[in-house]
Each structure stands twice: as C-alpha cells, then as structure tokens.
Amino acid sequence: xxxxxxxxxxxxxxxxxxxxxxxxxxxxxxxxxxxxxxxxxxxxxxxxxxxxxxxxxxxxxxxxxxxxxxxxxxxxxxxxxxxxxxxxxxxxxxxxxxxxxxxxxxxxxxxxxxxxxxxxxxxxxxxxxxxxxxxxxxxxxxxxxxxxxxxxxxxxxxxxxxxxxxxxxxxxxxxxxxxxxxxxxxxxxxxxxxxxxxxxxxxxxxxxxxxxxxxxxxxxxxxxxxxxxxxxxxxxxxxxxxxxxxxxxxxxxxxxxxxxxxxxxxxxxxxxxxxxxxxxxxxxxxxxxxxxxxxxxxxxxxxxxxxxxxxxxxxxxxxxxxxxxxxxxxxxxxxxxxxxxxxxxxxxxxxxxxxxxxxxxxxxxxxxxxxxxxxxxxxxxxxxxxxxxxxxxxxxxxxxxxxxxxxxxxxxxxxxxxxxxxxxxxxxxxxxxxxxxxxxxxxxxxxxxxxxxxxxxxxxxxxxxxxxxxxxxxxxxxxxxxxxxxxxxxxxxxxxxxxxxxxxxxxxxxxxxxxxxxxxxxxxxxxxxxxxxxxxxxxxxxxxxxxxxx
Length: 550
Fold this sequence. Notes:
Structural class: alpha/beta
Shape: globular
Radius of gyration: 24 Å
Strand content: 15-25%
Strand order of the largest sheet: 1-2-19-20-22-23-18-17-16
Number of helices: 16
Number of strands: 28
CATH architecture of the domain at 229-339: 3-Layer(aba) Sandwich
Distance between the termini: 56 Å
CATH class of the domain at 229-339: Alpha Beta
C-alpha cells in the first residue's frame, strides 16, 4: 500500500524514520476496489481498447520453432470458447485445481486464461519432472483435472481425469459456442494459480496466488505499441507464467521458445525472424547468448529490432553484465538494456524494477520498489528494522503477496505474519536513493568462525577472472571453522587454470575468512529451471569428494 499523506517519507529513498519502513514512490496504478467480483482475465481484457484490438492482423502467439501463429481475434475467440466448454465438456468448475504438465506452446496461454476466467485454479509444473516428482506436486495441490500432452501424460496417475492438449477432443473445444452463458462469480481474493516454489533450499511448496495478486503485477501494463515479446523461459515458473499473460494485459505479441532445451543461436534467429523487441530469459540463457556473440560477431546485426532484455529467476553476475555490454557496443542502454528486477514466487514475480538508464546503472542493484510495495530491512538476529544503507533480511508487504502455502499453515505463518509482512529470506539493503541491492540468500550464507560469507560475492569475483566461465561457491563443514567456502569452476575453453592460481586470485582481493579452501573443476553446474544454482546438490558433491580423500 502507498504511504499515507501523514507519513513523513523521504522523497528520495522512500524511507519513513518513524515506522522504519520503505515505501514505493512509483505513481499509483488503476486497481479495482478489492471487494468487486472480478477475475484476472476479465480485468486484463478491460485494459485493452474496444474493440479488443485496432490491428487484427498482428499475431497474439507465435511458436518460434514451427512458425504457428494465432492472431489476436483468434486468441480471444479461443479463450471464450474454451471457457464455455470447460464445465459441460471437460468437467472443470469454479474452484477446481487444474494441473498442467505440458511444454510451452500456443495453447498454454489460452488454457491459463480460460481456466482463470471460470474460477478454476491453474497449477502448472515442469514437464521434464519424473513421475515420482510429479506425484509429490499432485499431493500438494490435489487437482481434479490435469492437462498434458501425449509425451507427458504417462507421468500422471491413471485415476486422474486427464485432457491432452494435442488431442482432437481438446482442439474441438475451440469450436464450442463461445457465446454460451458461462457467468460465474469470481472474487479477487479467490485462488487463481498454484505455483510450486523452486525448492532450492528445501522441499517444494504450493504457492497460492489470487486473482488480485496477478492484477497487482499487471495493472501497469497498458496496450503495447507493436511490442513483440519472446519468452525463452518456462511457462510453469512464475517468471514465464506472468510474462505469458501479457498477451492479454498488454496485447503483446508473445513468441514462445518451444524447442527442447535452450539454443542460443535459435533464439537469436527467432529475434531476427519475428522482429522481437523484448526478450525474456534466465541468467544461464543470457550467458549462452553472450558466448555466441563472443564467437560470432555477425549475430549482433540480427538483433536490430531488440530494445530490451529481461533477465530474471536468479542473480546476474557483474562479470556477465560486463561481457554483455561489451558485445553490443553499438546499441545504447536506452535501446538495448538488461532490465533488472527482483521478486519471488511468493510475491507473484517482481516487486522491484529498474526503470530507465539511471536505475539500471548501479552494479548489483535490482531497481526501486514497484507500486504498492512496503519494505522493511530487518536484522536477522535482533528483529530490529534497519535504516538505509544497512543490510538485513528484506520483509515486504503489498497486494502482490501470496495468499499462503496450500495446506501448510505452519509454513505459511513462518514466512507471512498476521500484518501481511512476507519474510523473503534474502539479505538486502536499500541505499539513500531508494535502490534495492540483493546481497545473498540468508540460508545460503557460509558461516566461517562466526563471520558471514555471501557465496554470490565470491562467485562474482571468480567470474571476473578471464579464464573462468562460470563459478559456484558452497559451504563445506569443518570442525574448527564451522564452514569453509569451496568453489566449483567451469574453465573457459583452452584454459589450463589450476587450483592454486584460483585460490591466490581470490586471496588477494578478499578478507581472510572469505578465501576459497578447495576448488572443483567441472563441466557443468546444476541449476533449476529458473537458473538458480542448486547449492545443496553441490554441497553434497563437495562433502562426498573431500570426505573420500580423508
């Protein structure tokens, strides 16, 4: 919520010394009254001009691999027809949880919108999961229906009502009478989606997001002026989930990267072929794009239409930002900028965003608080709220904060208090200009003799070395120190970098307790679908490897 006029808020940082709370200084957004019955799709379509679009020839959805295109009139028609068919033909009603286990494709955003329009709850999952992993998620969300494709249906239990998106039965729903009465009362506080937290620091949880949560993250999206957004991110992750909905809120043409696995050259070719103006991807994909650009200068010419790159889901190394900027020197930051932001699944994606050149400039920053955001920086041990410039755990409150974890009251109350404050678990600080900096995950801080060592700081330092392509730092247990920082390194092609060199490189630039104690050279670093390093997996590898030598 925005600060009250009676609150003495610093106009530069947004900090109120009386309440020790940071407030967003962004302009208010056109949100509907919270008690008005309204679904997210109805709200989204209300943002568009009437008739829905002035230019009927523009595609709404494009499959980058096949070139299949869905024009805007067809998109709206399919959403209405599918919404009308859900109850009589597929048995889906208000309040039902619909599990979606399908790869990216032009039917997926249509399905999301149609389900939410009738008050059903969308629950997408990674189609690459095993049957055992899928069963864990099904136990969390208890769906009454699943939507899959032929290649993924075998991972679902036989007793679950399953609809195949690549079957004639589903496709025939697009021919259903779209004018059939499908009126249903949907409250903004009703669940709209159940997304699964990444589980990088523990088991996955089912995050319940409401229709109003989605509205709060999309209210700023007015009709786009010919924007073509390419999504090279998973549509089951909160990042891709919210971005694909921009086809409805902003009338973006959304180009979907549907190929299995990320192919940097294919993505760059699609940018050129479809006139992409905005590209959304995760840090590992950005790194692959930079590698291709470093190997082949000609690819830069193919991105002439591109104006912005959104990179989210995981922290971005300063070294990667520098390499990115160097490979595209002919394009100004205004034309071609790496959009920064910060958020969680529990906050319906980002609640911090960098707008314009000034906010993008500070290295390590994620922009300023978005509209409706309130933040406290809290000392992790004393619980006291801290002033600008001092790091602590970031607590956030706003209309985008989740309803809770499904069926887990204790887990919900542990992260979300009775006043609506969500504990992010991230170590952050906000400077005198109101710009937010993320230091690291509190749970991932390495504890060395009482000192706190942020792995991300060491990873950024390591990745600044010209012979290091990627780096990950994790703790290793030690009887005397408690934990020691150890590094996993991917060397640049042709490099003969050795462990002693790396240890010396780090030791010259950090205080003694941040020094690297062991180095593993690897061919890859495990990450989840959002690009976050799976540190617990690497910590287990380190433990097994070093212990075997003792």
